[in-house]
Amino acid sequence: MRLKIAIQKKGRLSEQSLSLLRECGIRISNGGKLKAEASNFPVDVLYLRDDDIPQYVADGVADVGILGENVVLEKEKQVRVEEKLGFGKCRLSLAVRREESYNGPSWFNGKKIASTYPVILNNYLRGQGINAAIEEISGSVEIAPGIGLADGVCDIVSTGSTLLMNGLREVETILHSEAVLISNPGLRGEKQTILSRLRFRIQAVQNARQNKYILLNAPDEALDTICALLPGMKSPTILPLAEKGWSSVHSVVKEDTFWEVIDGLRRAGAQGILVCPIEKMFL
Ligand code: PRT
Ligand code: ZN
User: Fold this and answer.
1) Separation between Cα atoms, residue 211 and residue 30, nearest integer Å
2) Residue having the nearest C-alpha atom to atom 4 of ligand 1
3) Other Cβ atoms closer than 10 A to 108
4) Fewest Cβ atoms closer than 10 Å to its Cβ: which of 69, 85, 125, 146?
5) Same structural domain for residues 266 and 215?
6) Could you give the CA distance from residue 88 to residue 66 in angstroms, rounded to a whole number?
């Protein structure tokens, strides 16, 4: 029995989806255009357009898939979100012409909005009690106001430079998105077991990416303050140095609070701080 995993064939998520699988220790041959088999783990990879992945997973053509949460929400298929994967981060936003005097979401009443996300946009407008027309288009949404097709747009934004270059201004964020692992809710037996093993590996890779290993030297009188800054996985390891009155402290710090922690450690008297990447981390 093998688990069929659908990933984006060509696009923003392709490379990182493959890297994640590789970091999970899964060896995938480069050969196939539509399909590839892993040699050391019971999965087959199917390369698809991201828009088709929810349907294929819901139908059981693929068992699991990796794609943007934005597409999962837009397609409204019967699939389960198993993991957030921490890459492909973006937001779906509303934007208007830079010179428009925008005064809040009700500005869109009676207006026309161009988007490739009509379902999410419609849900948002209904939730806000706004009556606007949706112009569904398949690409290049950002040019719609300039050519007189719509008054505003609802599109994916990451750096914001596409909006800027087209004379548009982001005014509301409808949702934040990142790549996710989805599954067919009917998976049972051996396939479910393979999925659990895959998720276990993905979590180890994710934890490793989100944490750093830290080593430092500290005078013994500063240890209490330093340990309070470095809770670690259970608690920090403290080893005596050859020099009397000094210890070496080893722990794990979160990537996102990392610089603040370093500042605190230096204030507390830590010296010789080393920070190393973690290859895998099992909680
Ligand atoms: O061919 P296929 O249908 O598989 O690919 P696609 O063209 O539909 O999707 P693709 O590869 O562009 O994006 C895949 C997924 O990446 C999306 O569904 C999002 O989840 C995620 N993602 C992350 C993005 C962006 N960042 C992004 N910046 N998807 C699209 N964009 C586009 C956006 O549409 C706009 O045109 O980039 C432009 C905005 O970028 P900034 O940086 O200028 O703001
Ligand atoms: Zn697509």
Assistant:
1) 31
2) 49
3) 25
4) 146
5) yes
6) 11
pLDDT of residue 204: 97
- pLDDT number for residue 188: 96
Q: Which among 265, 268, 104, 86 is positioned nearest to 180, based on CA atoms?
A: 86
Same domain? For 111 and 218 the reply is: no
- pLDDT digit string (tens) for 7-18? 999 999 999 999
Q: State which H helix or E strand residue 177 sits in.
A: strand 168-177
**What are the φ and ψ backbone dihedral angles of 42, each rounded to 5 degrees?**
-75, 60
Question: What tens digit of pLDDT does each residue of 232-265 get?
Answer: 888 999 999 999 999 999 999 999 998 999 999 9
Q: Are the CB atoms for 160 and 44 separated by under 8 Å? A: no
Pairing of strands 152-157, 112-115: parallel
Q: What residue numbers bound the domain in which 238 lies?
A: 211-277
Same domain assignment for residues 54 and 104:
no
Average pLDDT for runs of 10 along the chain of length 283: 97 97 93 89 97 98 98 98 98 98 97 98 98 97 97 98 98 98 97 98 96 96 95 91 96 93 96 96 91
Q: Which of 208, 226, 260 is the last residue of a domain?
A: 208
CA distance 112 to 92: 17
192, two tokens: 């479910």
User: Which of 9, 14, 50 to mutate to test ligand 1, by most ligand atoms within 8 A of the CB atom?
Assistant: 50
Within a domain: 282 = no
Q: With a threshold of 0.85, does the pTM exceed it?
A: yes
In-domain check, residue 283: no
